[in-house]
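Checklist before submission:
- one chain only
- standard amino acids only
- sequence pasted in full

Submission:
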Amino acid sequence: MLDRILARQNDKKADYHILLSHRPEPFHLYSHYPFDLVLCGHAHGGQFRPPFTDGLYAPNQGIFPKYTSGMHTENNTTEIISRGLGNSTFPLRLFNFPEIVHITIFPALK
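Returned file contents:
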């Protein structure tokens, strides 16, 4: 899928490449493409976040998921995962406050 997206680009070179992806868990795959920033959700912050954990469960990741919120970096790619505002199939959050992520991207100084 990503190969098809990248193949559609025209000859112009972008200075910064952003991928909007619903799912954060394939981050290791995203980081092998020339994306500078990946923005994701889907994990609902792990739904239940007892203190000192990253969540107990996330869709497509199961129990004790790795990618539930925050910022992750691999191979010069940064992924930012929002915990979002809604719930999964279970309508309750525990120690997992809804969030809206605000990101400011500044042009590189040349």
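Reviewer check: Helices lie at 2-7, 27-30.
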